[in-house]
Design goal:
By secondary structure, this protein is an alpha/beta fold. The protein has seven helices and five strands, in the order ββαβααββαααα. The chain has two domains: 12-148, Nucleotidyltransferase, domain 5 (2-Layer Sandwich), CATH 3.30.420; 152-199, no CATH class.
Length: 200
């Protein structure tokens, strides 16, 4: 069962990201501040929900959250400053764009760079423990999925509409045959065992 929040701060923002391990496109982060008394049925880690349920919950989150924000960092920046720094940048941008300044930041995972003078806490698997992080995971996931579907038609052979840029066997085989596109992260190297696997 998820817990409403970690701290006693009323304006606690939950933070999560999507797309960190993808071979294509941006890394996306979301920040969400929920009302302390708000309970959203079925809210959970986005990875444990169907696509239909995620979009249903996104609508509810956006209608009921005190504040929310979604931020993208593109593949060119990822190649320039690496994926970790890009993830932290996306997280910071999502906090910066909140219409209300949070008094505490609750982050999914174990890595975060302090944002200004706001206290924070990292929680491994936080999207399975706290409502605000779970809400952020849903926004980050769905908005990034929307982006990947929007660029799918430019290079349909890579099947981004379905794989969302991750290294499926088909996607890896298409990279091997046709090379990388302008949307691929050039700094991400395919492992030799992935290339062998794609041919089996």
């Amino acid at each position: 069962m998820l817990i409403t929040k970690f701290s006693e701060h009323k304006m606690e923002a939950g933070i999560d990201e999507a797309g960190r391990g993808s071979l294509v496109g941006p890394v996306t982060a979301a920040a969400v501040i929920l009302d302390n008394d708000l309970k959203i049925p079925c809210l959970n880690d986005s990875k444990k929900l169907s696509s239909i349920k995620r979009y249903e919950l996104r609508k509810i989150i956006e209608e009921t959250a005190i504040a929310y924000s979604v931020s993208f960092v593109d593949c060119k920046t990822i190649d320039k400053i690496n994926i970790l720094n890009s993830t932290l940048k996306a997280m910071h941008n999502s906090i910066e764009n909140l219409k209300i300044k949070p008094s505490f930041i609750l982050v999914d995972g174990n890595r975060f760079k302090p944002y200004k003078n706001i206290l924070h806490k990292c929680v491994v698997n936080g999207d399975q423990k706290y409502f605000n992080i779970a809400a952020a995971s849903i926004l980050a996931k769905t908005y990034r999925d929307d982006y990947m579907e929007s660029i799918h038609h430019k290079f349909p052979i890579y099947d981004w509409k379905n794989n969302k840029g991750y290294g499926t066997m088909h996607h890896i085989e298409m990279i091997r045959k046709h090379g990388k596109t302008i949307f691929h992260r050039k700094s991400f190297k395919l492992k030799s065992d992935q290339l062998k696997l794609s041919l089996s």
